[in-house]
Amino acid sequence: MKQVFQILLTCLLCLQWSVAAGELQKPNIVFLFADDMGWGDIHCCGHPYAKTPNLDNLAADGTRFTQFYATGVTCCPSRTGFMTSKFPATFAKYPANGGFGDRVTITELLKKQGYTTGHFGKWHIGPETKPGTYGIDCIGGEEKKKQDERGRDAHIYDAAISFIEQHKDGPFYVNVWGHIPHHQVNPPPALLEAFGPLQVDESKFPAQMQEKFANCRKQGGNVSQHMRAYLAELKSLDENAGRLLKRLDELGLREKTIVVFSSDQGPAHIRETGDDDPRAKVVARKERKRSKKPEAAAAPDPAGNTRLNAMGCAGPFRGGKHDQYEGGIRIPFIVRWPGHVLAGRVDERSVISGADWLPTLCALTGTKINAADFDGEDASAAWLGKGEHVRTKPLMWKTSTPQSAGTIREGQWKLHHPNSKRGELELFDVVADPGEQHNLVKEHLDIVKRLSAKLEAWQATLPKTYDKGDANDNDK
User: 3-class SS at 63?
Assistant: First the structure.
């Protein structure tokens, strides 16, 4: 009996040591973030011409989620949701200018857990960029560089790789937030030549892209030429991501690191010049001025209108950037963590949001939070392949303007309240009708009433006025 007791005690001590060792082996986290990249812009998501082998391999080695949502329709609101797990309309001061106030961030929480934290690339989440802001130890890569034949985000990935090398003993968390393919898409000749020739067969694209192609032609553009410029930039993004992933392997960090790839919101539109959107006229005027400058000479369009290079594809979804339709807020999302996240899996059922980023990472790193303080949910079980994530909280969208229209998704249903530009109430079953083509308001008045009540109750808690300061959202 004494011998049995000693064996059990030894096993218990081993188990305790193993748990303690596990706590010391917290996963590194690398967050690769594109800007204005469409849901359908990656080859593995169905793009007929994209050359994205590294992102395709990332998906093959991990899990791709097809129902992942941004928290906003432009850059700052989306980043706000990821960093704070709060819907951006809850901030009275626009975070790009006012910061996050007393809202805690994922970087602050992980910093307290012993993580070294870094941020490289686009910021757009507050006026301060000095080290220590939001618990981030190292902030860099935002400064503009001379034209780089590896692409305009190469220096951001250089800085992130250097950070990883310096902190390879971990644990570390790093945002790698690039600018590609946000305007201005104007790749250097070397990138265009590396991509190769392209003749677009428009029939290979979903119907939602036809309006973009038509608007391009109306403004004198060549669809193949502009698509080639766009995809050359995506190729450079993919190659730089590949450099970082390769370095993780070389440092022996592959199994120790969660790598996530996503985009802040859907692809930019090509507006028809002279349409009822005032932005189109402003854009056209700016582009005419830019086309006369020497630095525009590299643009593939003779007129230098790089706005026509905005050939991002939202896949089968309606709309794009600035829209609360699926094309504006449904974004690519890939997670890799060998040995934990299932490889080669596509999760088509879990409905997850950028607001879930903070609580999910807290769950995976053993960081304790009060879930009631956040708008997002812990989706770690879905990340780890342990089942579908079924939301207990609906998703809400609204811009930081008191009169703007709200949108809610709960279960299969998505309800859009009308505004001055969208003059009717709209209800869609986005599981059966992901392209939001069939308005079911009249058929399901009970669902409209229920969702409207929830959306209006949420909107009643929001600020009555918003301070956007001198915000230049950089999201046009």
Answer: strand
Strands across the sheet with 172-177, in order? 138-140, 116-121, 172-177, 28-34, 257-263, 333-336, 63-65, 345-347
Specify the DSSP element, H or E, that contains 157: helix 154-166
Output phi, psi for 72, to 5 deg: -150, 170
Calculate Rg over the CA atoms of the chain: 23
In terms of Cβ atoms closer than 10 Å to its own Cβ (0-12, 13-18, 19+), residue 90 is middle
d(C-alpha 116, C-alpha 108), whole Å: 10
Nearest 5°: phi and psi at 412? -85, -10
Question: What's at 71, amino acid-wise?
Answer: T
Reported as a single tens digit per residue, the pLDDT across 19-74 is 333 444 899 999 999 999 999 999 999 999 999 999 999 999 999 999 999 999 99
Question: CB-based burial of residue 57 (10 Å sphere; 0-12 exposed, 13-18 middle, 19+ buried)?
Answer: middle
Domains of the chain, first to last: 28-391 (3.40.720.10), 396-459 (3.30.1120.10)
Pairing of strands 407-410, 395-397: antiparallel
* pLDDT above 70 coverage of the chain, percent: 86
pLDDT band at 423 (very low <50, low <70, confident <90, very high): confident
pLDDT exceeds 60 at position 301: no
Helix, strand, coil percentages (3-state) for the chain, rounded to 5, are 40, 15, 50
Predicted confidence (pLDDT) per residue in 351-371, tens digit: 999 999 999 999 999 999 999
Task: Say what the pLDDT of residue 471 is.
Answer: 52
User: How many CB atoms within 10 Å of residue 274?
Assistant: 11
Residue 10 has pLDDT above 60, yes or no: no
Task: Examine the pLDDT at 250 and tell me if it is beyond 90.
Answer: yes
Q: Six-digit token pair at 252? A: 């022996």
pLDDT at 21: 34
Predicted local confidence at residue 12, as pLDDT: 39
Q: Give residue for tokens 């990332």.
A: 58
Helices (H), 219-335: 223-250, 278-290, 326-329
| C-alpha to C-alpha distances, 251 to 245, 256, 257, nearest whole angstrom | 10, 10, 11
Query: Is residue 14 exposed (0-12), middle (13-18) or buried (19+ Cβ within 10 Å)?
Result: exposed
Question: In the predicted model, what is the mean pLDDT of residues 332-354?
Answer: 98
Q: What is the rounded CA–CA span in Å between residue 27 and residue 68?
A: 22
Please state, in angstroms and as integers, the Cα–Cα distance from residue 267 to each residue in 8, 15, 165, 476, following that order: 59, 49, 33, 11
